[in-house]
């Protein structure tokens, strides 16, 4: 093996090890919650079809606010609210930013974040609809295990 081959092999190995250290612990698969950790953020997500995702970011040393992000067809809601129905229960209108994020760095955001986070952990499914008609139903089975136990709103810290 020549020196160039050794350098390329070492670079690839280092890249793979670095990616593994800051990556998801499981592969992406629709209808399965997965978790990971990287750069001070404990992450959990579930997907359902192309571009449909619920993503939970829990601050764990990053100094960024914990948040929950919703995307359908690869994009946020383009309005400041979404409709959620947990386990075919009552309809709830939830405030988000135009990117589909519930941030937790204000009192109102923290209350909203805590409310939705708890429901994500205790229910079996959630239906999400954006004002433009995009909609999807996500499984919540496995969410309590995937979402960090220490996940909390930044406002309370």
Structural features, described:
With 157 residues, the protein is of the alpha+beta class. It has one domain: Immunoglobulin-like, CATH 2.60.40. 25% of the residues lie in helices and 31% in strands. The protein has helices at residues 3-21, 107-122, 143-146; strands at residues 34-38, 41-47, 53-59, 67-71, 81-86, 91-95, 101-103, 125-130, 135-139. The strands form 2 sheets. The chain has a 5-stranded antiparallel β-sheet with strand order 1-2-3-4-7. It has a 4-stranded antiparallel β-sheet with strand order 6-5-8-9, with helices on one face. The chain is globular.
User: Architecture in CATH?
Assistant: Sandwich
Number of domains: 1
- Helix/strand/pairing class, anyone? alpha+beta
Q: What fraction strand?
A: 25-35%
Poorly predicted runs are: 5-22
How many whole angstroms does the radius of gyration measure? 18 Å
Q: How many helical stretches?
A: 3
Mind describing the biggest β-sheet?
A: 5 strands, antiparallel
Strand order of the largest sheet: 1-2-3-4-7
User: In percent, how helical is the residue content?
Assistant: 10-25%
CATH fold group: Immunoglobulin-like
Order of helices and strands: HEEEEEEEHEEH
How would you describe the shape?
Answer: globular
Q: Ends: how far apart?
A: 54 Å
CATH hierarchy class name = Mainly Beta
Tell how many strands the DSSP assignment holds: 9
* Mean pLDDT across all amino acids: 85
Summarize the structure.
Helix content is 25%, strand content 31%. With 157 residues, it is α+β, with helices and mostly antiparallel strands.
